[in-house]
């Protein structure tokens, strides 16, 4: 964290943040504020955001800079949040539980998320003060015998209800956005650290390309984090609809139930749209991963592509991937537009149907009943329009949750034990000084390796997982293992491994790199590793051109 200097007080005793001293201006780490006032703010200051007044006063006098921002509080520190997330992840992973990512996020940030939802609950309940007070005020206006003080009291209560609703709704939104930022920061840290420790073999086997990792850290994490800001709305909307139906039933009787019964005709359509949107989202992510992988490959191999003249070919491939992505996005947007139109008109259908049924049943629709019912229908209008999209959003965010969980649950490279001689030891090494005494770079001591088994998520049935695991174990017994290998590679000498195709030369190199899992025995490694894979890189030129690779030729 940046060091924060104290603010020097003016001689008149009042703080003037607009005029830092010359000594402060010379400091590179000078900060206008040395602490975050939100940490010590009371409930009223938090609800009214008055803790921002010192910052706003600076902004009124001059343009704000990064040095004027409040220091980040410990609550929002991404490293602290990631450490807690990682601790809970490791704990739940040992229990071999399902939906581990959702459970980890809930265990890490759930209490703060639900605390913010408490303000949402108060906000939603205070919104129902309005229909009651409107009904009372209508009676007050129609009956001259009611004292004037009653009307004044109704007005005050109505105003207070609006204020409570406004303050609590605003603070709820602020709290859930803080949770969203913490979730995003923790997941980005987790994915980044996982990408550094996952083996290339797992990447190639499970399709975890660099493009996939980029999409996980951007789009998928954003989708999960943003759900924190509107996920509670689905519960809130359901609660508002239930309370509104109860109050409307007391006011309009069975006619309101006839109006809400029209929703039944749209439930199958919404279910179909949600499933269709989830399928389209799956295909979209596959196309995005493919395009991002191609872009990463082009950027890394740009020099080779220019030598071979393959720029136009790769440009065409990337363009085709992008066009396929745009087509998929259009399908999703058309589906969303249809749902917005459909569910935007449903509240009006409910209102018209309810009032029409009420009149047809022989009741008189007076002003008091009309205004109170309209007030309740106004409250329920937003939940009726939002709830279907929330249900669709849940199905879409679950796609991102499964993708991130699948990546994080992959097996990592094994970490060796480092000794005082900077040597790394993996597994059971009986004599750790052996590699140093014999001046070796690599030493394998009865080591057995095998390729890791992918850990499948819960969408595969238990029987399918068992059969898949047995098949892979059988394959590994036949071709995927290096058994009881003993090998010493000396330092400072050229060592060449020869053998027929399929004898395990590449697997041995992968084992030394750590891509294969050590099952028994041990091996030691000293120094850093430079690895050149079997990917073709020879240029279409002379032998000299391939040797100097664009550098100036020096005969000496």
Q: What characteristics describe this protein?
A:
556 residues; alpha+beta; ABC transporter transmembrane region fold; 5 strands; 64% helix; elongated; disordered N terminus
What's the short story on this structure?
Residues 1-25 are annotated as: Disordered. With 556 residues, this protein is α+β, with helices and mostly antiparallel strands.
Describe the SSE topology.
Blueprint: H1 22-26, H2 43-48, H3 53-61, H4 78-94, H5 100-126, H6 129-142, H7 148-197, H8 200-206, H9 210-252, H10 254-261, H11 267-300, H12 302-308, H13 311-360, H14 367-408, E1 417-418, E2 423-427, H15 434-437, E3 440-450, H16 462-478, E4 481-490, H17 505-513, E5 517-526, H18 543-548
Antiparallel strand pairs: 1-2, 2-5, 3-4, 3-5
Helix pairs in contact: 4-5, 4-7, 5-7, 5-9, 6-7, 6-14, 7-9, 9-10, 9-11, 9-14, 10-13, 11-13, 11-14, 13-14
Keywords: ATP-binding, Membrane, Nucleotide-binding, Repeat, Transmembrane, Transmembrane helix, Transport
GO molecular function: ABC-type transporter activity; ATP binding; ATP hydrolysis activity
Subcellular location: Membrane
Structure description:
This protein is α+β, with helices and mostly antiparallel strands. The chain folds into 2 domains: 78-408, ABC transporter transmembrane region fold, CATH 1.20.1560; 417-526, no CATH class. It contains 18 helices and 5 strands. Strands 1-2-5-3-4 form a 5-stranded antiparallel β-sheet. Helix 5 (100-126) runs antiparallel to helix 7.
Shape, principal axes of CA atoms: elongated
Share of β-strand residues: 5-15%
Give the quaternary arrangement of the chains: single chain
User: What's the main sheet like?
Assistant: 5 strands, antiparallel
The overall pLDDT average reads: 78
